[in-house]
Write a structure and sequence with these properties.
Strand 1, helix 1 and strand 2 form a beta-alpha-beta unit. Helix 5 packs parallel to helix 8 and helix 7 crosses helix 8. This protein is an alpha/beta fold. Helix content is 54%, strand content 14%. The protein has 2 domains: 119 residues, Rossmann fold (3-Layer(aba) Sandwich); 59 residues, Orthogonal Bundle (Arc Repressor Mutant, subunit A). A 5-stranded parallel β-sheet has the order 2-1-3-4-5, with helices on both faces. The protein has 9 helices and 5 strands; from the N terminus they run E-H-E-H-E-H-H-E-E-H-H-H-H-H.
Length: 189
């Protein structure tokens, strides 16, 4: 998954960047703060998700930009609940005056929904390196909070990974994951 953050305010773009990385460290995130840079790179970048300031999106309303963004899911960064752009695929709005916890929850849901879609398309039954780390820690008896602390991620992210592991492996219990870890030489007994 590739995320593009197009925001001129440095503190807003870095804040979103850090929240996304805390939720899922393996996501590629590109920060752009100028319209010229955006125009030059949008086709090469081909983001799955675009976090963009509503004022900047207004400047992208010409037909050339609309066609470049027709398959990109957009998260609008705004200070107004009622802002709307019917020509774009806006899946969520983040209000700049929202509490951090509310923004984190929105972003977590966006990433989970989009990772779930990717996993359904690419579900080979194999788990990612991060998921292997989590299976190892689960098999060793760690709680979600302890796993989060050890991997420097949020407990909510651990829960998301556990859901993805369950979908991929079809294993729903800690004992089942422990047996999986032993059989696949992830841990030693």
């Amino acid at each position: 998954m590739k995320i593009l953050i197009f925001e001129k305010r440095h503190i807003v773009s870095k804040g979103l960047y850090s929240i996304i990385k805390e939720i899922e460290n393996s996501i590629e995130i590109i920060l752009i703060d100028s319209f010229i840079q955006f125009q030059k790179n949008i086709q090469d970048i081909a983001p799955d998700l675009l976090f963009i300031n509503h004022n900047l999106l207004e400047k992208l309303s010409d037909s050339a930009n609309k066609s470049k963004l027709q398959h990109t899911r957009i998260i609008l960064i705004t200070n107004n609940h009622s802002t709307s752009f019917n020509d774009f695929l806006i899946i969520e709005k983040i209000l700049i005056n929202e509490r951090k916890i509310d923004i984190e929850e929105k972003i977590q849901n966006i990433i989970t929904d989009n990772f779930d879609n990717e996993n359904e398309q690419n579900n080979s039954g194999e788990i990612t390196e991060r998921e292997v780390d989590i299976v190892k820690l689960i098999a060793k008896g760690n709680t979600n909070q302890k796993i989060a602390d050890q991997l420097f991620i949020s407990p909510h992210t651990v829960t998301t990974h556990r859901k993805n592991i369950t979908k991929k492996l079809g294993i729903k219990t800690v004992s089942g994951l422990t047996i999986y870890a032993i059989l696949n030489n992830l841990i030693e007994i």
